[in-house]
Specification:
The structure is a homodimer.
Chain A (H helix, E strand, L loop, with lengths): L2 H13 L2 H8 L3 H15 L4 E4 L2 E4 L1 H29 L3 E7 L5 H14 L3 E7 L13 E5 L7 E15 L1 H6 L14 E4 L6 E5 L4 E5 L4 E3 L2 H9 L4 E5 H9 L4 E2 L5 E12 L6 H14 L8
Parallel strand pairs in A: 3-4, 3-5, 7-10, 7-11
Antiparallel strand pairs in A: 1-2, 5-13, 6-11, 6-12, 6-13, 8-9
Helix pairs in contact in A: 1-2, 1-3, 1-4, 2-3, 5-9
The structure holds a DNA duplex.
Chain lengths: 298, 298
DNA sequence: CATGATTGTTCAATTAAATGAAAAGTAATT
DNA sequence: AATTACTTTTCATTTAATTGAACAATCATG
């Protein structure tokens, strides 16, 4: 079954002659002649009666032409629809990110992307579990930490710096906190994925492991931040998330010379032959927006 | 633009894998792979995301598939419609014939054709003028006399024998009519297309030309026959047309040893690669029916 | 964990299609 | 009536597509 023969036949009918069809299709007349003849042979009917320098569609030709031309219209429509979609970023883009990346950060990202590309629809999938992008039909992920899947393309966004925070009220009432070992005398608000046993802190000279009592563990950075603001203890949190609370003096840095770990942040997406415009658009905006939020990776 | 690529792509989607599509299409997997890749390159988009031994239709792929599969459906429908039409004679068949071939003969022909092929619709174009079959969209002609267009296929039906007829009543009252020269004493009812000047008559030994007075000329065989039956004169008419009148003794042969000309009769139709079923059916029945009506050609 | 089966991709050899040129036929123009 | 222009068809040469085989990766089975 060769649909290109049908396409040539339909064009011949529309153009009124083999020669005119050849000109319109940019093909030699011998190609037109051969393809129509081949179609007639394959179908076992005469579609065009051709003598006296003129063509006459046979009844079979008319029957075939009516259906075939509609079909070809759809096929061309299919390509036109793709062309239209390609020229501007539009449609649904599905993004996955860690649930605790920070509401303000994600809200800001969505706002900026959709301001620049009004036709884009974003579906954010915030989850702590590993997401298989291809299997789940997710276009792009924001991932922190070490990357697992080497078949994906990764684009660095910087890194998340963790640091110690507490409220001024808490610090007024609490024992002195002048070095990391003093933390064992304080209420430590632990982020469960960070680990239950210890906090690793470092300064320019050294690194220290502070054992944790494990009394307060929450797997939500937002809840831990709120508890810290309420004076319920000392928290180890991403610095970029606490910046607004620092400005309003609800939180202050504790032991500022000592830092938690730094987690790399990447955009990751599947390798594919042709980059969809909406994905390219999203990546461009996300990089511009998020690089300002995270610590520059050295 | 290569629609066969689209067909392969659509089949891959429907089958769920390249390998399954290859089996269903009877093509090697390398052909499937190459054609889909070529389609993606030509369209400039990724239609299928293919990793981990599974396929995922991209959004572009979905967009394209929806339209393309409808289009291909129409194209296959076009072929199916032709297949159905080919298997039984049906539809309109346009036949041209001389206007004066005889109502009974033509009525009989139409009746027999349509009895044997109930789905055939016959349009009879009875005319004296030359009909260009292809230009006028006529499928087949019954032609008498010498053929003009050698590009048509001709199938002999026999020949029309012209002979002298008159009513018994006329002959009772008229002068003796025992040899062709006696005709000048009679009223000769002339069929204009036969010629205005003379009647050519022949027997086994010789041929004679009888000059005509030209007083009664009509270009309708039916009218001449009716006049002869009314006793208005002697007519030179096709024998097959007069057989019923002979049986009822309204007409009798005059000078039976002397005959007019014999006109060959043919079915003629355009040469074409594939004989439409309805034309083949008509020819078969027309030959069977008409050969019994005309004198067998030696 | 090793093996076999299945997937999709790539490449050199084979096969098929496309093409330019020429031919035959017809219509339009001079 | 002769010439020119245009049509469609055919064929040898050129070009492109198809294919079998091999490869790499993954899944299912023992």
């Amino acid at each position: 079954m060769d649909f290109n023969e049908a396409a040539v036949f339909v064009k011949v009918v529309q153009a009124g002659s083999f020669s005119a069809a050849a000109r319109q299709l940019g093909l030699p007349t011998s190609t037109i002649s051969t393809r129509v003849a081949r179609l007639e042979k394959r179908l076992g009917v005469t579609l065009l009666q051709r003598t006296t320098r003129r063509l006459h569609l046979t009844e079979a030709g008319t029957l075939y032409y009516e259906q075939a031309s509609i079909g070809l219209g759809y096929l061309m429509e299919a390509e036109a629809a793709l062309d239209a979609a390609r020229l501007q970023p539009q449609g649904m883009l599905k993004v996955t990110a860690p649930a605790d990346l920070g509401d303000a950060l994600l809200a800001g990202l969505v706002k900026r992307v959709q301001t620049e590309y009004p036709d884009l629809v974003l579906e954010m999938l915030l989850t702590d579990r590993y997401v298989d992008l291809i299997a789940e039909g997710v276009d792009v992920a924001i991932r922190t930490g070490e990357l697992r899947d080497s078949s994906l393309i990764a684009k660095s966004l910087g890194s998340i710096q963790w640091a110690l925070f507490a409220s001024p009220l808490y610090l007024q009432q609490a024992p002195a906190l002048e070095a990391p070992p003093h933390l064992h005398a304080h209420t430590c608000l632990q982020f469960t994925p960070m680990g239950r046993e210890q906090w690793l802190l470092s300064n320019e000279q050294s690194e220290i492991s502070v054992p944790m009592s494990g009394r307060t563990l929450v797997n939500s950075i937002g809840v831990i931040k709120a508890m810290a603001e309420n004076g319920q203890g000392v928290a180890l949190l991403p610095t970029f998330i606490c910046q607004p609370a620092q400005r309003s003096q609800q939180l202050v840095r504790v032991l500022p010379a000592w830092l938690g770990r730094a987690d790399a942040v990447h955009l990751v997406y599947p390798q594919q032959r042709f980059m969809p415009p909406k994905l390219r658009a999203f990546i461009e905006v996300a990089v511009a927006e998020l690089k300002t939020q995270f610590k520059e990776t050295l």
